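Weekly modeling sync, notes
Attendees: S.R. (lead), two postdocs, one rotation student

Agenda item 3: backlog of single-chain predictions. S.R. asked that every request posted to the team notebook include the full sequence so nobody has to chase files. The rotation student volunteered to paste the first one in as an example of the format we agreed on. Action items at the bottom.

Example entry:
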Amino acid sequence: MKNIEDQPFSYLVKVGHISSNPVTVKIAADPAECRVLARQWGVVEVKAFAAEFEVRRWKKDGVRLKGRVATEIVQTCVVTLEPVASKIDEPVDAIFVPEGSKLARAALTDSGEMLLDPDGPDSPETFHGDTIDAGAVAAEYAAMAIDPYPRKEGVAFSAHVESAEADDAKPSPFAALKDWKKS
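Predicted structure, as returned to the notebook:
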């Protein structure tokens, strides 16, 4: 039996049923799933959560999920501690290949180093069996788009000073000797 706390939002897609023609998948969370997502993400409330994907074959055995995830959440303002409502509308583009696929392995140089391009496409994810959890992918993309420091509009840190310029100055290595000579 699935534990909803481990995977609060799940929508399984059978890979074997995906043909060369793309399939549109629309998913949305019910109120109970929204409450669990709110706890998992550390937000006050998830008012709505939905995603729409175009699922298609990628290369021979892979699957590509491309679409959008949209959610409405309520967070706590880091300045005033008042509720802040925000909307997330995030593009999703994920590629999955079966475990053990050559396409999932990172390219190596002659010296055995991995070649990673930070601006290039992500490496394909692997899946086990014959299903991909499109709901978990949607929840992951939405969670990555949540503002970690939400603020109410027009609110800023104004009177807070971490340190003065004199405190930031590098101390002289001879400052300790100055007081030693007096005694």
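Discussion: group reviewed the output briefly. The radius of gyration is 25 Å.
Action items: rotation student to repeat for the remaining queue; S.R. to check formatting next week.
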